[in-house]
Design goal:
Blueprint lengths: L8 H25 L8 H13 L4 H9 L8 H14 L4 H9 L1 H15 L8 H7 L5 H5 L4 H18 L4 H17 L5 H12 L3 H19 L11 H7 L1 H12 L11 H26 L14 H8 L1 H24 L14 H18 L5 H44 L12 H14 L12 H5 L10 E4 L5 E6 L11 E7 L4 E4 L1 E5 L2 H7 L3 E7 L2 E2 L6 E11 L2 E13 L4 E4 L1
Antiparallel strand pairs: 1-2, 2-6, 2-7, 3-4, 3-8, 5-6, 8-9, 9-10
Helix pairs in contact: 1-7, 2-4, 2-20, 5-9, 6-9, 6-17, 7-18, 7-19, 9-10, 9-11, 9-17, 10-12, 11-12, 11-17, 14-15, 14-17, 15-16, 16-17, 17-18
């Protein structure tokens, strides 16, 4: 519950372990599961550029390497930090870049915590911030090494920009210019903060600072967008708005309600329904807040119910300025995404890497609620969001730990597959871009800027050839359409180790392929009664048959139990020729 700012020393001693526990727990979890392995866009975004920069290409060429766009954005800050990691460490280690980028999370906590404290609340009112922010919903943003210094960083620097602009001091304005420069260089939505910064300064009637802000940032904005091209495979924003306006609107409301996502085990249509229903009141509330801020201008006879936001701003100008800027950034980001990705449908908004947005939506809502409610309701709001935070925290671990485990497994399999079979099971598109991706990796290996780590796959081919006796009763089938193979075992029980479990093996005369599997898990009731998270049984991720070289392969399983590994085989054989694929019992 909230306490006055002069809360007792005993109260502070009691609250700080609770404030820090979610951060420590999450840090330990991610430290165990991160790996030094590139994933998908990492190859051309980080691995290749670091190798090029290590050769000392000269100042202007180095700037070009940092500047060249990745997909439809530029990630200058991301590449620069990756190169710094290489220079400091002597080799590019993805884990160090991840660790640096993840410092943005406690930085965001500090922003919201300081804002809450400035409104007269005690440290107990900051507890929901820890519970909501520090949980593993966004595991993909951590394990995918380019994302912490891109996705985390853009929100960190943009929100710090709003925080600094909301302060009247000259030093804060100067610092805001630098944080906004880094935000723009982190990701494309960092430029939204420039426009929002104008609105903040205009609302504060700081017209001289507004002119300086516009002039100082124009060269950075021009640099970022100069010759920035939308890739041919991405439709134009105008096309989506004209052809798919209904999808854009629906996706925007669903994205706004993303904190209410019931989780990956629910059907997609259920997730869309729940988030859309939750998004409508959130968007309406945001519209009320933004419109209400305009009530400070006596151009209309504003109704009383619209005057609360401007009255709240007058009461807490700095926290409310910061929180309103964050609200605008989230709304613009969600609208831009809904417009740009309407052709892909609504489903992609539920991927893990967008879950930080869900956390920020809840935190901004919490902060604005604390600012706007009457004093007599303060404790109730803190209590309600503490309960919500506990639910958010617990469901984050239960619903998304499985995804964290599977994402790490996919990275390990990619590391083995590229080295020994020249495939990337997590990225079927690799087959179309093999030459380019291989060039990035080979350049990095030759330059000595990166090397693959050892892992569960070390000496797999020798291990796979030791004992080919049939010991397993697997179920294998070629899926309808003839493009994918699926392998299933309903009786396999996974151990408690980080990498414990089953991995599908296809062992041939010249190549041994390795593929990840998805272990079953219990629902919450059975997990509690069995005191286990994972249930018996697994199914392989769909194995793209096109990625296999012609040959005959034994279908088996790599079984990992702590430090022990063994390969067991089933009766199934896969026979692939240049024109046909057959599964033989």
């Amino acid at each position: 519950m909230s306490l006055p700012r002069n809360e007792s020393l005993l109260s502070r001693i009691l609250v700080w372990p609770l404030l820090l526990a979610p951060l420590v727990l999450l840090a330990v979890l991610f430290a165990k599961y991160v790996v030094n392995i590139p994933y998908q866009d990492d190859f051309d975004a980080l691995t290749g550029p670091v190798a090029e920069l290590s050769k000392g290409p000269g100042f202007w060429k180095s700037l070009y390497i940092l500047y060249v766009q990745d997909d439809e954005r530029r990630i200058i800050f991301d590449r620069l930090m990756a190169y710094v990691v290489y220079r400091v460490n002597g080799i590019f280690d993805h884990r160090l870049l991840i660790a640096f980028g993840c410092l943005s999370l406690p930085g965001l906590w500090l922003l919201f915590g300081r804002s809450i404290r400035k409104m007269g609340y005690g440290w107990w009112a900051v507890l929901p911030v820890s519970l909501i922010l520090f949980q593993p919903r966004y595991y993909e943003t951590v394990l995918w090494s380019m994302l912490p210094t891109q996705h985390f960083a853009v929100y960190f620097f943009a929100l710090w920009t709003f925080y600094l602009l909301s302060k009247p001091q000259r030093w804060a304005f100067t610092a805001a210019i630098f944080t906004e420069m880094i935000a723009i260089c982190s990701d494309s939505n960092g430029s939204f903060a420039w426009v929002i910064g104008m609105a903040i300064l205009l609302y504060q009637q700081r017209y001289r600072h507004l002119v300086v802000w516009i002039v100082a940032m124009l060269p950075v904005i021009f640099m970022y967008y100069y010759k920035l091209e939308i890739p041919a495979y991405r439709p134009k924003l105008s096309d989506n708005l004209l052809k798919l306006p209904g999808v854009v609107i629906h996706e925007f409301f669903a994205f706004a309600g993303i904190p209410a996502d019931p989780g990956p085990k629910f059907a997609l249509n259920q997730r869309i329904l729940v988030t859309t229903v939750a998004g409508v009141p959130l968007v309406v509330g945001a519209a009320w807040w933004l419109l209400g801020l305009l009530s400070r201008y006596p151009v209309l006879r504003w109704p009383v119910w619209l005057q609360r936001p401007s009255a709240t701003f007058r009461r807490f100008p700095e926290p409310v300025g910061f929180l309103t800027g964050a609200l605008l950034l989230l709304l613009l980001t969600m609208l831009a995404y809904a417009t740009a990705r309407a052709g892909d449908g609504i489903g992609p908004i539920f991927v893990s890497r967008y879950k930080l947005i869900a956390c920020l939506v809840v935190l901004v809502t919490y902060g604005l609620a604390l600012a706007a409610v009457p004093n007599r309701w303060r404790n109730r709001v803190v209590g309600a969001f503490t309960g919500l935070g506990l639910l958010f925290f617990a469901s984050g671990y239960f619903q998304y730990f499985e995804g964290l485990v599977n994402f790490r497994r996919a990275l390990l399999i990619d590391a083995y597959s590229w080295q020994y079979t020249r495939t990337l099971p997590s990225s079927p598109i690799y087959l179309s871009f093999r030459q380019q991706v291989d060039a990035f990796v080979l350049d990095a290996l030759e330059a000595g800027t990166y090397r693959f780590p050892e892992g569960i796959y070390t000496d797999l081919r020798e291990l796979a050839g030791r004992d080919t006796t049939v010991r397993q009763d697997l179920y294998a089938k070629i899926l309808p359409g003839g493009k994918y193979l699926s392998v299933r075992d309903e009786r396999f029980a996974r151990g408690p180790g980080i990498d414990d479990g089953a991995y599908t093996v296809l062992h041939g005369d010249s190549l041994t392929y390795l593929f990840p599997t998805l272990q079953n898990r219990y629902g919450i009731r059975l997990a509690v009664t069995h005191f286990r998270y994972f249930a018996k049984g697994y199914e392989s991720t769909p194995i793209l048959l096109q990625s296999l070289q012609p040959g005959t392969y034994r279908v088996g399983t790599l079984i990992v139990e702590g430090d022990r590994r063994r390969v067991e085989y089933s009766r199934w054989k896969l026979e692939k020729t240049p024109t046909d694929v057959r599964l033989l019992p």
